[in-house]
Amino acid sequence: MPVPCGACGNPVHPRVVICPHCGEGTGIAPDATWTAEERAAAATLASRTAPPVEDRGGGLLDVVAGDMLGAAAVVVAVTAGAAVKAAVEAVTEERAQRTSRPALPRAQARERTAPPVVVPVRAEEPEPAPPPADQPRFLK
Question: What is the SS3 string spanning 34-64?
Fold first, then answer.
């Protein structure tokens, strides 16, 4: 949504710091979240002067729309480039960390055998009788 320029009143993009129409400051503070590349692209875009309306063969609306589309295209291209660059750096950094770690030990597959079958053997002698209840077991 365009906002009016603080100097000439023409509609400009909400992030434009220097008006493309009059060359003066728009009164909008630069966005602190921009990267250095985005700020440089915005300054380059703001320093361009539009050719006179007669040379383009269109009206004032064509000049304004063309400049705004060009500015938007530059901002989108720079933003997309910065996002791709950050993603590539993150992947490269992760690969470097992965290769710097020592290798993990390899697992060895072993064939498991069935446990031996244990058959209970019946005892031949009787079980000992429990002690009488009147004498505690630890005093025997």
Answer: CCHHHHHHHHHHHHCCCCCHHHHCCCHHHHH
Is residue 77 included in any domain, yes or no?
A: yes
Q: How far apart are CA 86 and CA 75, in angstroms?
A: 17
Q: Using one digit for the tens of pLDDT, what is the confidence trace for 53-79?
A: 454 455 555 555 566 667 777 777 778
Residues 73-83 pLDDT 10s: 777 777 878 88
Range of the domain at 11: 3-100
- Alpha carbon distance 22, 28 (integer Å): 15
* Alpha carbons 100 and 96: distance in angstroms, whole number: 6
In a domain, 74, yes or no: yes
Task: Look at the chain and report how many structural domains it folds into.
Answer: 1
For residue 91, being part of any structural domain is answered with: yes
Could you tell me the pTM of the whole model? 0.25
Q: How far apart are CA 117 and CA 115, in angstroms?
A: 6
> In this structure, what token pair is assigned to residue 128?
């000992």
How far is CA 110 from each of CA 7, 99, 107, 113, rounded to the nearest angstrom?
A: 81, 29, 10, 9
Q: Is 110 among the domain residues? A: no
